[in-house]
Design a protein that fits this description.
Elements lengths: L1 H7 L3 H16 L9 H35 L13
Helix pairs in contact: 1-2
Length: about 80
């Protein structure tokens, strides 16, 4: 880092800080764009609502399947008997 700092005419500690900041934002892109407490609370509420809706969809799928089987029970095959 010292060599890079000398080449660009910057303090080595400044370059080191740039590298650390870049590493932090590339491993955690959210850190590069912090959000307000209000937005964080809204995001949390929306994620909770999304989980609830996903559970509701699963329940409705199961209910639909159950009632479809109730309404249209499987047909039993008659014993194969020779035709007369």
């Amino acid at each position: 880092m010292k060599t890079v700092a000398e080449r660009i005419g910057a303090n080595p500690e400044t370059v080191r800080n740039w590298v650390r900041k870049t590493q932090a934002t590339t491993t955690n892109p959210v850190a590069a764009h912090p959000i307000s407490e209000e937005m964080a609370a809204e995001l949390k509420a929306l994620r909770r609502k999304n989980r609830e809706l996903e559970k509701t969809v699963e329940i409705l799928k199961a209910a639909t399947s159950f009632f479809a089987r109730e309404r249209d029970p499987p047909q039993t095959r008659e014993c194969d008997s020779p035709q007369k």
